[in-house]
Amino acid sequence: MSTNTAFKNEAPNEAPRQSLDSAVVRFAGDSGDGMQVTGGQFTLSAALAGNNLATFPDFPAEIRAPVGTTFGVSSFQINFGSSVIKTSGDDFDLLVAMNPAALFVELKGLKQGGIIVVDKGSFSDRNLRKAGYEENPLENGTLDAYRLIQLDISQLTLDAVKEHGLSNKEALRCKNFWTLGYVYWMFAHKRKETIDFLRTKFAKRPDIAEANISALNAGHSLGETSEAADGFQGFAIPKSEDAAPGLYRTVMGSEALAWGLTAGAQLANLHMTFCSYPITPASSVLHQLSNMSEYNVSTFQAEDEIAAVCAAIGASYAGTLGVTSSSGPGIALKGEAIGLAIGIEIPLVVVNTQRAGPSTGLPTKTEQSDLYQAVYGRNADSPLVVLAARSPAHCFEVAVEAVRLATKYMTPVMVLSDGYIGNAAEPWLIPDINAIEPFPVTFRADPEGFHPFVRDEETLARAWAIPGTPELMHRIGGIEKDYDTGHISYDPSNHQKMTDTRAAKIKGIANDIPAQTIAAGPDGGSVAVVGWGSTYGSINRAVSNLLDQGKQVSHIHLTNIWPLPANLGELLAGFDKVLVPEMNTGQLLTILRSEYLVPAKGINKVNGQPFKIRELEQAITAEMEG
Amino acid sequence: MNSVTPPAKLTPKDFATDQEVRWCPGCGDYAILKGVQKTLADIGARPEKTVFISGIGCAARFPYYMATYGFHTIHGRAPTFATGVKLANPDLDVWVVSGDGDALSIGGNHLIHMLRRNVNLQFLLFNNEIYGLTKGQYSPTSRAGTRSPSTPLGSVDNPISATQLALASGARFVARSIDNQIKHMPVVLARAHAHAGASFVEIFQNCIVYNDGVFNDFTAKDKVANQQIAVENGQPLLFGTNKQKGLYIQPAAFEIEVVTLGENGITEADVLVHDETNKVLATLLAGLQGPDFPVAIGVLYCDPAPSYEEGVQVVKDRAPSKTEGDLNALLRTGHTWQVDAKS
Fold first, then answer.
1. Of A241, A266, A293, the CB nearest to B327
2. What are phi and psi of B281, to 5 degrees?
């Protein structure tokens, strides 16, 4: 069915909006069309409308790919609604396609009967050819299975901004806000925050700010005043009712990481020195912290990945919290230095915002394939702590915990995020930092009985004595040190003892982390679906759906990857089958099999896209029946 | 007002650890260790405020022999650890000890960037033109044709000039000394320490096992007078047994030539006067090589500029808020919404 719009001159129709529990919207356009900004603004308006939400920015590696091409399509997906939202959604209800290429690339993800909003003005012969269309899909009936809303957005935008005297090129760049205004009308979202945003963003170009606002308003009023042939009057999505009370905001994973690290440093009573080298998709953590110098944070953009981790270690050595951040290829370069930090037993937090690989791989696409690298990826026996965040907001508490463990145990801690978590947003019940138990660091000051490797009997952590402290002058370094004096030692039995001690220290952390809980389903029985990281939402919803169907299945989601929680082996032993969905070819799977000798099976996918709920349900069901 | 007891004056021995020094007997590093310990005593350094940081190589064992704070890190990366230390605590007095392989090969990138940032520390490069710890392979300062276990028929690569690289990287202090110049070295090291910013000192160091005598053509006793020139700011660039030879620049050629006083009407007034703030002159002096020219030692260049740490502070002061931020408040800025408890 095709929906043609016609202008109405009378007052806005009072017909009721169609009520929905939730909706998935995907904005798609050229990488220069501003789809990420549009999506970000829509996210904010959905949050302020009181909806739960999850987002998925999906963009190409090229900053400005050739205009109109399929590989230059940049998209932003949001799932929002009144019920619990755990993923950015499988298939979408509404596709906004700013050009033929966007329609071509994204149509396969649209539900049957879903709505398409297209900029008819961009469907020129040339653009159709670039997208790979031989005929105009707006005219040949191929979109009959959908509700097609064709608007000449380019022309409508030009008309709307005419009074602001912009160049044609500048004027056309307002079309994303025209479209946003129209979609705001569709979902009855408010425009005020976006208007404020535009006036702030373009404070130095008020003409551009006002033109975009005019476009936004024009798009919105077209919705209000036009009459769809099928009487479509937009949607109403009620406020979420199940959220815990408190003050909320939206948060992206990179923000939550930056704030969590800062909070952790404050709770440890340390200045943070954050050292990084630009890399996609990890750089946003650096950007965020670079703007936070008044929060006892220093940032350092090093000359390379190795310099970044080494400067962070040097900063920890001198008595601050050294943190470095990168993505898989950069983490590989840091490996030798992380080994040094393990050897000298110094606090260090290493954040890995994973991306698809190997090598450069798909830099803007998500994957969770650096688990082996995190747990095993250094020379020699070099254990450290590995934590994995499961969602954007969860990055905050994982970052705090990373700082706690790094400083308490004098060890590097690797935090695994990924491109999906880093860029995605969700609502967040803002925590009260003053309500978190602090864990202040005490530097060694007493010379009595001091040597650099004198250990706490309980934690096995060595004393942290920092340069500048009188009478504690000492030398540390990569050569093995004597257990009893801290001097260089080539003694074979000492190396055995030090290696065993380093391993025991990390293993012992299993007693200082929460016991593994069940995220959904019974704590034993037929099937355990074990995940880690950003697959949380998809697995949880898939398992919940199967539970609703009366199937016996449970979801276990790991935050503590290394050491594994002390009770995990026993927990897994209580299930007949263990399934491990991962966006890699089976890394946690291998670790679980090797640690617990369980006959676990993998559900694996590495196409750069998060798991869909449906495909997990199908895979789990197949394994249950198989 | 509280009276402060001045700390006791320390001697060079107070900077030595009880660890057995494990360089080869006769290694030039012993003399440098003594020179550094003497320098620290001379300048009144406090052991608890002093940090020696090294990478990997024979020279990199240096921190273990200094009764200060010491950090023996990984190959080539010492400048980066040192940068992190200075970022965390600018009050520490940091010395980096490196070798030609460590600083110029595996760590070349870090040296460049530490120097261009002008991190306030002393960087000592022990140049012996060979890889010692890995048993004698040619290094980035080895002369072309060097025969070594990895180049049995002679090396092909041209050597790099450490001091010219430092100057090109933007170093504001570049100096040279020699392991056997036990009087000269502490003076140069004290100057390096006094300079606020990155101070780069190349020390020619003899590897008695793998490259013995490689610098003899200007360091041997009978060569000192005619094959070395110890430069001093404001002084004419004279050398030779009776200081009868001098350096002279042909105005049109930008090239240094050696002249003899009294020959061809040359007088001392014609001889170049060392100006350590002149980078062009420093670059020319850094490039002088035997046998036609003397090797220049001393402070080739010193033209201080704000250090990296000062710059970092200047930038921090630009932050809109001068008071410490309240993270709880930050999390609550921007767009928030309240969900009320269900009644």
1. A266
2. -65, -45
